[in-house]
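Changelog excerpt

This revision adds worked examples to the README so contributors can see how folded entries look when concatenated. The first example is reproduced verbatim below.
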Amino acid sequence: MSVAAASFAVFAASQVGTPGPANMALMATGARFGLRAALPFVAGVALGKQLIIWPLGFGLLELAQRAPLVFETLKWVSAAYIIWLAWKVANMRLGEGPDAAAPGFAAGLIIHPLNPKAWAMIIAGFTGFTAPDTPVLQATVTIAAILLACQILMHPLWTWGGSLMASHVRGTAAERYLMWTLAALTVASVLFVLFGGGTT
């Protein structure tokens, strides 16, 4: 065995498809701007995970094992940023600022590098589904391709889901509850990664 691709694909689909900071950001963006306007952001989020996968595959994972305090600090800084984004989502209203522009590709790129769930998911791929003697390039390409395929399928669905929900609650009393729920799920997913010891 080199990379247990089928098993990792099932794992990756379960992780990419479940609530987390990135999916909540996608849903909130879809709710605010609609799927079509959010597509550049969706593309950025999908490709942003590659900014973690390739450095980890080519040595950053080994550095993390040698200097765990550095990565522990980065994890908490990233979590604080995601929670700050959740606060912004909680206070966002779907009907405000009709001329505002949707976040673009560059904004999407930074979501996963600052997402503790993404780091945990990718590290699990390299440590739990890859044989120790697997060539680095093979392992990295396999993990990168599987995660990207899952994201291409599932990220637009989360964004579309946000758009559908918004079409029913925009301008109603339920709007505030929707945004607070998205924010609360985002914070909960971060706290689960920080304290739960898991990757979901």
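The second example, added in the same revision:
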Amino acid sequence: MAEIIKVYRQSIPAMRFIGKNYGNSENTDWGAIWSDAFSSDIFGKVERASGGENESHMLYEDSDAYIGLCYRNEETGNCDAWIGMFAPIGTRVDIGLDYIDFPQQNLGVCWIYGKENEVHSLVPQCTEKLKAAGMKIKSNKYGYIGHFERDQCPRFTTPDGKGNIILDYCYFVV
């Protein structure tokens, strides 16, 4: 059974999110877009543009992660589904990808522990856990500005002895 095992605030530097925008997240087949992201080498492109895998993973603690971002589209009010990675500000963006520059800020992070097919079921509980920990999630008139799945290596990619992984789920907080 999956459970939220850790809730904390994390400071992150100004950075550029580079990835592919798949449109309205409410109409998105996340499995299909993750598959597309791997087959089109989005992560390799971002790592190479950032100076290589080692360099791209030095941005902040946990920056060696693939990101599934839901970010508010100011034109439509909907959250768009993005897949990509964070990179240093100013990193070159390959053709076919796009970017969002983020200022230095804080994340509210929940670690969800369990089987990979179970952990996503607890994502809706993260907002209450963050609020209970004294964090206010950034929002606008349409709702939360952004939140994302952070598939951090090795927490997410390497199951423990019980076959469990840790999914980081993050919100931008004040």
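Reviewer comment on example two: The chain has a mean pLDDT of 93. The chain has five helices and ten strands.
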